């Protein structure tokens, strides 16, 4: 039997509650079986943390009281993933993307590219 690689998805969020909710729903609906989601919240004031706790209890949440920036947030998520899960792969994702089954990621509102 082939081992399914462990994947950790790290998402840094700052006041993008509605986009983050769509992103987390899309991850929940993926058909990949061996992954963990880690959200690093950088001091959001829009209810992001409460939404995660209520609707996505399976998500691992790191809460910063202030915005520490994208890079530091990613580093916190990566460190947590490596220490807790020892994943085969880490995916760094923005909170405004949606994961779909046939493609890796897709930005909201950019379903097609215009060719010049």
Cα-atom radius of gyration: 14 Å
Largest sheet: 4 strands, parallel
Strand content: 15-25%
Kindly state the percentage of residues in helix.
Answer: 25-40%
Secondary structure tally: strands: 4
Q: For the largest sheet, list the strands in their spatial order.
A: 3-2-1-4
Q: DSSP helix count?
A: 3
Q: Provide the residue-averaged pLDDT.
A: 88
Listing every helix as H and every strand as E from the N terminus to the C terminus, the arrangement reads EHEHEHE
Low-confidence stretches: 102-108, 110-116
> Gap between N and C termini, in Å?
48 Å
The geometry reads as globular
Query: What class do helices, strands and sheet pairing give?
Result: alpha/beta
Characteristic key phrases:
116 residues; alpha/beta; 4-stranded parallel β-sheet; 3 helices; 30% helix; globular
Tell me the layout of helices and strands.
Elements: E1 7-13, H1 17-28, E2 35-42, H2 48-55, E3 60-64, H3 70-84, E4 89-94
Parallel strand pairs: 1-2, 1-4, 2-3
Helix pairs in contact: 1-2
């Amino acid at each position: 039997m082939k081992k399914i690689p462990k994947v950790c998805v790290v998402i840094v969020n700052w006041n993008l509650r509605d986009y983050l909710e769509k992103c987390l729903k899309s991850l929940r609906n993926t058909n990949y079986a061996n992954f963990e989601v880690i959200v690093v919240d950088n001091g959001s004031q829009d209810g992001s943390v409460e939404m995660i706790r209520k609707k996505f209890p399976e998500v691992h949440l790191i809460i910063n009281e202030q915005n520490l920036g994208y890079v530091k947030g990613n580093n916190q998520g990566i460190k947590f993933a490596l220490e807790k899960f020892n994943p085969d792969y880490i995916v760094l994702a923005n909170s405004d993307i949606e994961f779909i089954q046939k493609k890796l990621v897709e930005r909201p509102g950019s379903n097609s590219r215009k060719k010049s």
